[in-house]
Amino acid sequence: SPNPVFPPEQRMVLLACGPFTPSDGVAFEPLSDLLEVVARDRPDVCVLFGPFLDAKHEQVESCQLLGSFSDVFRLCLRTIVEGTRSAGSQLVLVPSLRDVSHDFVYPQPPFPCPELPKEDRARVLLVPEPCTLDID
Length: 136
What we know:
Elements: E1 13-17, H1 29-41, E2 45-49, H2 58-61, H3 69-85, E3 90-94, E4 124-126
Parallel strand pairs: 1-2, 2-3, 3-4
């Protein structure tokens, strides 16, 4: 007898767009709230669109950050990677032209991330903007 046709397995995909900081600080409270949702709902895939450190942010425009743009971005990226690790979600990071720590060219190359921990490399995908994403 022919094999029954099974519907494709459902996937939960979470999409979120930056900026992930409030306009008056770089404490990343909205990012923390997002990571709580990821930990609770355990989506199969999280697609996060920048800006991760917004060029229009007050403290960026007035040069009041305590660290370099790349240092603040690396902290943000580490927070995202570590914050999604327990959920096991596939993580896709898409840059924005407003990311101050990245190239202001279009199309944009993926974020460089040479310090990505080995255990996270299989689940973290750094993509260019624009890109085509095929989930399953």
